[in-house]
Design a protein that fits this description.
Blueprint lengths: L9 E4 L5 H12 L3 E6 L2 H14 L5 E5 L5 H13 L6 E4 L18 H16 L1 H6 L3 E5 L22 H26 L4 E5 L8 H4 L11 H11 L6 H4 L1 H8 L8 E4 L9 E4 L8 H15 L7
Parallel strand pairs: 1-2, 1-4, 2-3, 4-5, 5-6, 6-7
Antiparallel strand pairs: 7-8
């Protein structure tokens, strides 16, 4: 698929130092967008920046520091970007961690996956609202097919007593999907001028399958080896170039609408070309989405109505 002409557009992509985020940022640079890449690991981010510039020498791209596991870091970045007075036209909430074997927490005490994958992005989006509204932005939040069989544990969303790596990951990705849908509804009803949708990359071979499962683990987790084996066999796993396509479509295509979910069109949504997916049953409740929104404003201290 080809991306539209993005010259004159400013795009912010989290998690662009590796994997799908880096591939997506590279495609956006080729389309002419100016890129801001908020990263936690600055040396790794510098390598990614060099790769983008090697692929596209004329690319306008810069790094900023962001630790999504710290609400103070999110506030600092958003304050800086808002103070620059530049409209943001695209925001892709892509960064994340997957299935650390033992429960870990963010700087603010939240379960790491819920805090990083979800609350950090909610806070970033909320604090960037002045710049997003000025740019009549499209916000694409990355979810996962894991959201399909997940639920929000309203009694214990931080999994303080019973932690399951996979269940906590699925909850964070369902929360991302509910947030994307609710943001679009509230933008429409309040006249914010923002289009919000969600996308997932299917099963894409990236370092996500090694980095998260190996956090705090003495022996390497088997996920990465299994994924590589499946990729060699050509089964259920796709390349980064293929996996980024649903995200690119959701973020840039004039045919991609707000309040929708996009992902691969293949069997089980593992691989394939981008298409609009039927909304998962787990994400259809507007009551749940509104309840989660209110909880998120309380936990992050970010109130969208004040933006």
């Amino acid at each position: 698929m080809t991306e539209p002409d993005l010259r004159g557009k400013l795009a912010v992509v989290t998690g662009a130092s590796d994997g799908v985020g880096l591939g997506l940022a590279t495609r956006l640079a080729h389309a002419g967008a100016e890129l801001i890449l908020p990263v936690r690991n600055m040396p790794k981010g510098t390598t990614a920046l060099d790769l983008i510039r090697t692929s596209m020498p004329s690319a306008q791209v810069s790094l900023r520091f962001l630790d999504l596991a710290s609400l103070a870091s999110v506030e600092s970045l958003a304050d800086t970007l808002n103070s620059e007075g530049r409209p943001i036209h695209l925001l892709v909430n892509n960064a994340g961690v997957m299935a650390p074997p033992r429960r870990q927490t963010t700087e603010d005490g939240y379960e790491l996956q819920f805090g990083t994958n979800y609350l950090g992005h909610v806070a970033l989006t909320g604090r960037l609202m002045p710049s997003l509204r000025a740019g009549q932005a499209r916000v694409t939040t990355v979810t996962s097919s894991a959201a399909r069989g997940s639920r929000i544990d309203w009694d214990a969303p931080q999994a303080a007593q019973r932690y399951s790596p996979v269940r906590a990951y699925g909850q964070s990705k369902l929360a991302n999907l509910l947030f994307a849908l609710e943001l679009d509804r509230r933008s429409t009803s309040n006249g914010w001028g923002i289009v919000s949708n969600a996308a997932h990359p299917g099963t894409t071979l990236t370092n996500l399958y090694a980095a998260g499962p190996n956090l705090g683990r003495a022996r390497p987790a088997p996920y990465a080896a299994i994924m590589k084996r499946l990729a060699r066999w050509g089964m259920l796993v796709q390349s980064v170039d293929a996996g980024l396509r649903p995200l690119l479509y959701a973020a840039t295509s004039p045919d991609a609408k707000g309040g929708r979910l996009y992902g691969p069109d293949g069997w089980g949504e593992f691989t394939g070309w981008p298409k609009e997916l039927a909304l998962y049953r787990s994400a259809r409740s507007e009551v749940d989405a509104s309840r989660l929104w209110q909880l998120s404003e309380r936990l992050t201290g970010v109130t969208f109505a004040a933006a």
